[in-house]
Structures are given as structure tokens and as C-alpha cells.
Design brief:
- The protein has 723 residues and is α+β, with helices and mostly antiparallel strands.
- Helices cover 45% and strands 15% of the residues.
- It is built from 25 helices and 22 strands.
- The strands form six sheets. Strands 15, 16, 18, 20, 21 and 22 form a six-stranded antiparallel sheet that branches. The protein has a four-stranded antiparallel sheet with strand order 5-6-10-9, with no helix packed on it. A four-stranded antiparallel sheet has the order 8-7-11-12, with no helix packed on it.
- A hairpin with a 2-residue loop joins strand 7 and strand 8.
- Helix 3 packs antiparallel against helix 4 and helix 14 runs parallel beside helix 20.
- The radius of gyration is 31 Å and the shape is globular.
């Protein structure tokens, strides 16, 4: 018996086999014909016993690999906790336990055929993984108590307002930024240059906080609610999958992308416990007469009341329920009625959960919960839009990406409707595909449905494969849909940006090594008058919108102008190490995005030798430093005549003090001092000190841009104690 058949029989017993017989024995609908196929054709000249043995051998190696991966994952949890050994020494104990447990799994590797040992290993791994996750989350809070996203701050602030009798949909969320120390770069920005300050999620996103607040728990509540939601999700997925797949649940749920999202502030985890249960039970809705028939759509409605992602999943679930009912009763009217009842109960649950707000202020409530769709937010994410953001393909129409996502959603629904028997296993993942094509396609949209999909796949009632009688027309429809999506995608990636943006010069903060002012040369290549809004993109993250010091407010068609823009805060200043690009948004005739080329201020930097000086240097004695120019890969650059500057300063306990050392026979205390590189790209500095100083003198070398004269390429800092 295969793992798949064994787990199905184990989960549902004879009832599931009866369901399968019922579905596969009934005749197909008029426009379909059965075509049950074999997934593995028998090799010519091979006996059935040889094939079974080969399959068993292959399955064992897969099984072995999963268990050994689980062992490594448990060790990884121990290493994560080990990193907290100084801040929270007690976390070393669970860290050592996790490492030893992981080593035990590696040695044992799940090879025992005795189910009792497998059960102990599975349950032990679950407990250690969840405990390690909670301990690790606590350490992350200690390291950085500030909230990592505005959505998390909005939710907790909205809950606090609700407890004080204030409707959060009528109140600005802006105070939550300072209340929870949200980094301005973590705001959700609109193309108008303003941050989103209205509550943008359904009511359950903050009502889940109320029970904890009633108990007096406020500190870091949003992080802990997220953390507990992810722990519950993992536990539910673990118990709702067959034993042979539970190790895989622990492996996936331990990946960094999930645990950092949970602790970092991605509130998608709040709807996952509801969706996992729905994924486990949704097919039973068509046949169950118990509370499940009412409870399943209620749970789905609750998931919709947390965030908007389950809204996109609803039509796919309705199609699945309709088909499952049709397979059972062969009645179109019954199928539509069953899917309609699921829809009605889900929507009713959603409305009841939001009842105090959708009745009191329906316009403000509706505007808030639809902000992610119609709020004019800036593009971002790892999907197709990244080709525009970084390769500068397209940008002339951000609406094209929105249309592309909507079109792909409709096509996916059509494919599921007419190819349900083949696409059923991917039902819970299908909404992720259109989300990858929208103008905001964050990785969280693409991966958060994986665990519900995994649970659904492992608990699906087998359905006979069917094929369309008119296969040719079906293939034409699929091909036509793909071509249409491709054409819209090509349009989105080829509609050129209206503005040409070039970084003319920059002004830096010196030793702070960041850019605070940028001079831009901008040309309007379109035939519309536009009003550009500027921001910086560093590492895929848009900063706060920059303030325009000089330059026209409006740019007429084919007009060129120079703009001077300044960073509004420290967080918006790009680092000199790496690179950045300036971004301009316009909204005349549709939202557009234009980019400058990548500006990389630092191609070279300096390495000081020696990088440390042990012991005190007697007064009057020399220390010689060699500043070597190196490239981005730390390879020496042989270039002569390059100006290198060495500076000195004393970082005293009470503030900065000018040093009194002499560099290359200059005046005592002179800083910086210039030296030119030799043919090997090395500049030499000899320092000495004749003045008694109680603190060490700190030396650092840097380069200076020859055109705009900004300092860059700073070396490491080397302290020297004279005495």
C-alpha cells in the first residue's frame, strides 16, 4: 500500500473509500468523459514485484532525506538560541537540548519501523520546535522592541481605541507610528508622497487583541499575538496531516521566511489557523450534516475578517465545493445551492464580525478595508513588478499590473472550473499566481498559503481524472488565456516611463557615510504636465518621500529641469556603502514610476595595516600605517597618485575631543592629512604623539570623490593609546 493510500485510509477509514467509490462509479456529466490514467506506466519487461520494490526503495530514500533534514532543522533551532547566550543565558539550555535532539534524529534518521519510536520522534520534535520558536521570539523582542510594520502598529492601536469606545475607522492611525516606534521606511506610502494613516484591514485583525488587553497585556502584544498564531498554525497543520508528512510540516514552518514574518510584523499569520482548519475539512461541507456544515464557512468568514488575502481564495473554494457536490449528486442546481450557502454563511460571518463598524460608518469602513486595492499605494514586492523596479522595464502604467493580476485571477478561476479534477490539489495555492503579477506582490502573499495548501492536499478525497470531450477547444481556450496574459504583461513591461531621471550630484554626511541631498536632472518625455514626487530606493525598500528644495512644482511636456531633493529623516538617507536609485512618481493620466540609474558612490575603499595596535606606544615613538586601496571584493587596486586622507579624533566618554597626534610630520592635531598612493595603491602615514592624552586616539582613512568631493571608502578605525 502506498503512503498516499495508507494515510487516506488511516484518516477517514472506510467512509473515505466509499466516497471515492461513489465519485468514480457515477457517470461523468454530459460535456465530460472519463479518462482515468496511470501516473507511472509499467516498464516493458519488468514484473509487478520489481516495480513495487523500486518504488519502495525510492520512497524510503525520500523518507530518509526528510528525517535527516528535520534533524538539521532542530540543530538550527539550537544555534538560533545559542546566539542569545549573552543577553539571555538561560536560553542556552533549550538550545543545547534542541541540538542534542537534532543529532539524535540524524543518527536515528527515522529508520525504525516501529511506529512508537516514530511517534516519539515526531512529537518531541514538535514540542522542541515550538518551544524554541517562542524562546527565539522573546530574544528578538529584547533585541529590537520596535514594531517592524505599520500594519502591526495599526492593529494594536485600533484595539486600544476600540476599548476606549472610539471607532478606529474614523480615527487616524498616525499616532501609532511613534507609540510603537515604527521605522518611517516601514510605512505604507502612497504615490502622493503621504503615508497610509487609516485602518486598512477588517475588524478581526484588531479584535483578536481585545482578550489579551482585558487581561492587562499590552507590551509587545502584537508580536506575541502573531507568534502565538504561527505556533497554533504549525500545531494544527502537524496534527491534520498524515504521520509520514508531519516532519515536512516542521521543516517548512521553521524556515526563516515564516518565523521572521511572524515576529517581524506580517499579520497574515492571524488568518492561518482558520484557513488550516478549513483546508482540512472543506470537502466535508458537501456531505456532512453535523456542525461542520455550519462551522467550515464560519471559519472561512473569520479568516476573511482578518485580512484581504482569503477574499481571493473564496471563489476557488466555491468552485471546489460546487464540483464536489456535483460529483456526489450529479445535480447542477444542488451544486450551485451548496456553493451559494457556503458563500452566504462566509459573508454573513464576515459582516457580523465587522457589524459595529459596517453599520455605524459604512463608507469609512468600506474605504478602509479596500485601501490595499484602491488606496494608490506605491509598487513594491518580489513579483513581476521587480522587473520594473530594478531592471526599469516599463513603469509607464502601474494600472497595467493591477489589470494583469485581475485578469490572471479570472483565468485561474476558469481553469479550475473546467479542469477541476486535475487542478484540485492546487486549489489553495492558485490565488498566489495572480498576486505575483500585481504592482504590490510581497513574498508573504506568495508563501503564506503553503501550509493550508499542504493540509488540503493530504486530506483531499480522491477524484477521478476527467477530460473534456472537446479537448481541442479547451486547449485553445487555455492557450488564448495564456497569450492574453502575456500580451498584458508585455504591455506592462514595455510602456515606457514618462520621466528621464539622472543623479547629477550628491551631498553626504561625511563620517556618517550616508547621502542627505541629491541633485537630479529630470526631463518630462511625455505629452502631459506632471507633478513628480521623489523618493529613494535602497535594497528594494522605498524610503520616506524626499522634500524638494528647488525645482518646478509641475513639469510641462518635454520640459527639462533640475531638482534638489533632501532626505526628510535619517532613515531615508541611503548608505554610501552599496548603492541606491532615485524614484519619481506621477499620477497625471494614470500612476507611473520612473527611475534613475543605480548610483553607486563607493567602488573602492581602504584597508589599514596594521588594523590594531597592541599595548601603549611610548611618547615620541612612531606608528606607521599603510592605507591600501581595495575594490568591492577586497582585492588590492594598483593605482598611483590617488589622494588618501587620514583623520584623528578622540571618542571620549564625555564627547568628542580633537587629538594632538602628528601625522606625517604635520602640525600637532592637524586632521585630516593628505598622502598620495604609490604604484601599488598604497598611501603611508606615520603618526606620533608628544602630548599626554588619557584616552586613545582613533585613526581612520578615507577617499574623496574627485568631481563632487564627497568622502567615501572609509577604512576601519584603529585606536592607538600613547603613553
Amino acid at each position: 500500500m502506498s503512503i498516499w493510500k495508507f494515510s487516506l485510509a488511516k484518516l477517514s477509514g472506510r467512509g473515505l473509500e466509499t466516497e471515492r467509490e461513489l465519485q468514480t462509479s457515477l457517470p461523468p456529466p454530459s460535456f465530460l468523459s472519463e479518462g482515468v490514467g496511470s501516473s507511472t506506466p509499467m516498464r516493458r519487461g519488468s514484473s509487478e514485484e520489481e516495480i513495487i520494490n523500486d518504488e519502495s526503495h525510492s520512497s524510503y530514500h525520500v523518507y530518509l532525506g526528510i528525517w535527516m533534514t528535520l534533524g538539521v532543522i532542530e540543530i538550527l533551532w539550537g544555534v538560533r538560541l545559542w546566539m542569545a547566550n549573552t543577553t539571555v543565558p538561560l536560553l542556552v539550555l533549550p538550545g543545547v537540548i534542541a541540538i542534542l535532539w537534532g543529532l539524535g534524529i540524524l543518527i536515528w534518521h527515522g529508520g525504525s519501523e516501529r511506529s512508537r519510536f516514530r511517534t516519539i520522534a515526531l512529537y518531541g520534535s514538535l514540542v522542541i520546535m515550538l518551544a524554541s520558536f517562542l524562546f527565539w521570539a522573546y530574544f528578538q523582542i529584547l533585541q529590537n522592541p520596535a514594531y517592524g510594520t505599520d500594519e502591526m502598529a495599526f492593529d494594536q492601536y485600533a484595539a486600544q481605541l476600540f476599548l476606549h469606545g472610539v471607532n478606529p475607522y474614523l480615527h487616524s492611525m498616525a499616532p501609532s507610528f511613534n507609540l510603537f516606534q515604527v521605522d518611517p521606511n516601514s510605512y505604507t506610502w502612497m504615490v502622493t508622497g503621504k503615508p497610509v494613516t487609516s485602518l486598512s484591514y477588517p475588524a478581526l485583525s484588531f479584535l483578536l487583541y481585545i482578550p489579551f488587553m482585558v487581561l492587562g497585556i499590552y507590551s509587545e502584544l502584537a508580536v506575541w499575538v502573531n507568534t502565538l498564531a504561527w505556533a497554533v498554525t504549525v500545531a494544527l497543520a502537524f496534527f491534520m496531516t498524515p504521520k509520514r508528512s508531519r516532519a515536512f510540516v516542521l521543516i517548512v514552518s521553521s524556515l526563516s521566511i515564516y518565523i521572521t514574518y511572524a515576529v517581524g510584523g506580517v499579520t497574515d499569520v492571524l488568518f492561518l489557523p482558520f484557513l488550516v482548519v478549513v483546508a482540512y475539512t472543506w470537502e466535508r461541507y458537501v456531505s456532512s450534516c453535523s456542525l461542520w456544515r455550519f462551522g467550515i464557512p464560519v471559519l472561512f468568514g473569520l479568516s476573511m475578517s482578518v485580512k484581504q488575502t482569503p477574499w481571493l481564495l473564496l471563489p476557488f473554494v466555491l468552485i471546489g465545493i460546487g464540483w464536489e457536490k456535483y460529483y456526489r449528486d450529479r445535480s447542477v442546481s444542488q451544486s450551485v445551492r451548496t456553493a451559494g450557502s457556503f458563500f452566504a454563511i462566509s459573508i454573513a460571518t464576515f459582516l457580523v464580525t465587522n457589524l459595529p463598524f459596517d453599520l455605524e460608518t459604512p463608507i469609512a469602513w468600506f474605504k478602509g478595508i479596500t485601501t490595499p486595492f484602491f488606496g494608490g499605494n506605491v509598487p513594491a514586492g518580489e513579483g513581476l513588478i521587480s522587473l520594473t523596479l530594478f531592471l526599469h522595464l516599463g513603469g509607464g502604467s502601474l494600472f497595467a499590473f493591477t489589470f494583469l493580476g485581475g485578469l490572471t485571477l479570472v483565468v485561474m478561476m476558469g481553469l479550475l472550473l473546467f479542469g477541476y479534477s486535475r487542478l484540485k490539489s492546487w486549489l489553495f495555492l492558485m490565488p498566489c499566481i495572480p498576486l505575483a503579477f500585481t504592482s504590490r506582490s510581497f513574498a508573504s502573499y506568495l508563501v503564506m498559503l503553503v501550509l493550508p495548501a499542504f493540509v488540503a492536499q493530504h486530506n483531499a478525497i480522491p477524484t477521478a481524472l476527467v477530460s473534456l470531450k472537446r479537448r481541442g477547444k479547451a486547449l485553445y481556450a487555455v492557450a488564448g488565456s495564456v497569450v492574453l496574459i502575456g500580451l498584458v504583461g508585455i504591455y506592462a513591461l514595455t510602456r515606457s516611463s514618462p520621466l528621464s531621471v539622472t543623479v547629477s550630484s550628491i551631498h553626504t554626511t561625511g563620517q556618517l557615510a550616508s547621502v542627505d541631498t541629491v541633485q537630479l536632472a529630470v526631463r518630462n518625455q511625455s505629452l502631459r504636465t506632471v507633478q513628480p514626487k521623489f523618493t529613494a530606493d535602497e535594497g528594494g525598500s522605498l524610503t520616506s518621500f524626499w522634500q524638494v528644495l528647488s525645482g518646478p512644482k509641475q513639469l510641462k511636456p518635454l520640459q527639462s529641469a533640475s531638482y534638489t531633493v533632501v532626505a526628510p529623516n535619517y532613515y531615508a538617507m541611503p548608505s554610501l556603502v552599496g548603492g541606491f536609485q532615485m524614484v519619481a512618481f506621477t499620477s497625471a493620466g494614470g500612476v507611473t514610476i520612473s527611475h534613475s540609474g543605480a548610483f553607486i558612490p563607493t567602488q573602492w575603499h581602504l584597508a589599514l595595516n596594521p588594523d590594531s595596535v597592541a599595548g601603549a606606544v611610548p611618547y615620541g615613538h612612531n606608528v606607521t600605517f599603510t592605507a591600501q586601496i581595495v575594490d568591492r571584493y577586497d582585492r588590492p587596486v594598483d593605482v598611483a597618485g590617488v589622494a588618501v586622507y587620514m583623520g584623528q579624533i578622540i571618542y571620549a566618554q564625555r564627547g568628542l575631543i580633537y587629538g594632538e597626534a602628528t601625522i606625517n610630520n604635520s602640525n600637532a592635531g592637524q586632521t585630516p592629512v593628505l598622502a598620495l598612493t604609490n604604484s601599488q595603491g598604497q598611501a603611508t602615514f606615520t603618526v606620533t604623539d608628544l602630548v599626554h592624552e588619557s584616552d586613545p586616539v582613533y585613526f581612520e582613512a578615507n577617499l574623496v570623490n574627485r568631481t563632487t568631493f564627497y568622502p567615501y571608502g572609509y577604512s576601519q578605525i584603529v585606536p592607538v593609546r600613547f603613553g
